[in-house]
Amino acid sequence: MSQHTAQTKLKLIGKLILAGDLHCETGLHIGAGKGSLEIGGADNPVVKDAFGLPYIPGSSLRGRLRSLLETAMGLTSPSELVYLSKRRGQEVRIHQSDRPDDEICLLFGRNPGRMERVEGEALDARSASPARLAVYDAPLDQESITAQMRENLDDEITEVKSENAIDRITSQANPRTLERVPAGARFRVRMVLDVLCEEDKALVGRLIGGLRLLEDDALGGGGSRGSGRVRFANLGLTWRGEAFYSTGAAEAELASGADLAAVQSLVNDASFGEKLS
C-alpha cells in the first residue's frame, strides 16, 4: 500500500532503469490495424517499424501491465472505472481515482478534470499526478530469428496462423489468418521508473509484480487461442540518482543477467530503499 498523501512533495531523487529481453514462448500478435492490409497478406498483420521489422509498441506493453494490475488490485468494478471513450462498440474504460495513494494513478499518471464513471456519479478529479513509469518501444533482436526458423516461416521474419470460426447455428466456417512473430523471437525492453519522493520507492515492487502477472497471461491479440505467452530474461536494474544528471556521478548497477524472480527478491528486501539514494 502506498504511503503517498496530499502533502507529499515531489522532487527528482533519481531514475530506476529496468532493461532486458522479452522472449516469445508462443507466437506473438500485436496488430497493425486494417489500414496496412496487403494483397495476398494476412487478414491481421502485425505492427512493423519503418524498416519492416516487427516491434512491441511501448503503449501495448504499458497498457497490458496497467490492465493486469488493475484486475489484481480489485480496481475493475464499475464504480472504479471511468470512460476514456464511449464510441459505440469501441468503449474504453480504465481505473481512475482522486486518491493520493492510488498506485495505479501514480505509476501511469492522471489528469484533473471531470470524467464519467461507468457506474455512479462523475469523477471530479482535482489533482494531477505525473506518470512515474515510462515504457519504450521494444525492437526485435534480429539474431533471435535463426536460419532454421526462417526456413519454416511464411515471411522472412513472421509466420501466418490460420484460424477458423464456426457458426454455432449454421455450421458455416469463417476462416481468418493471423500474422505472428514466431516463438523463439526476442525483443529488447526498457522501462524507466521516476522516483520523485521517498514514497515512490515502493512502486518498483508493484511494477515487478505486474511483469510476473504478464508471464502467466498474454500480450497482444489471440491470447485465449494460444498466442502471446512471453517470458522476461537477462534483466538489468540500474539506479541513476539525481547527481548522475546534475554532476555526472556514477550510476549503480543493482542487478544484471537476472530473471524476474531474482529482481523481485531484490526489490522486496527491506534494505532495497537504501540503495536508491
Please tell me about this protein's structure.
It contains seven helices and 13 strands. The chain has one domain. Helix 1 crosses helix 4 and helix 4 runs antiparallel to helix 6. The longest helix has 15 residues. The two termini are 21 Å apart. It is globular. The protein has 277 residues and is of the alpha+beta class.
Radius of gyration: 21 Å
Q: Approximately what portion of the residues adopt beta-strand conformation?
A: 25-35%
Strand order of the largest sheet: 7-11-1-12-13
* Number of discrete helical segments: 7
Which runs of at least 5 residues are low in confidence (pLDDT < 50)? none
Structural class: alpha+beta
Query: Which word captures the global form?
Result: globular
Number of domain units: 1
* Oligomer status: single chain
Order of helices and strands: EEHEEHEEEEHEEEHEHEHH
The overall pLDDT, averaged over residues, is: 92
Beginning-to-end CA distance, first to last residue: 21 Å
Largest sheet: 5 strands, antiparallel
Number of strands: 13
What helical percentage do the residues reach? 10-25%
Structural descriptors:
single chain, 277 residues, alpha+beta, five-stranded antiparallel β-sheet, two-stranded antiparallel ribbon, 7 helices, 13 strands
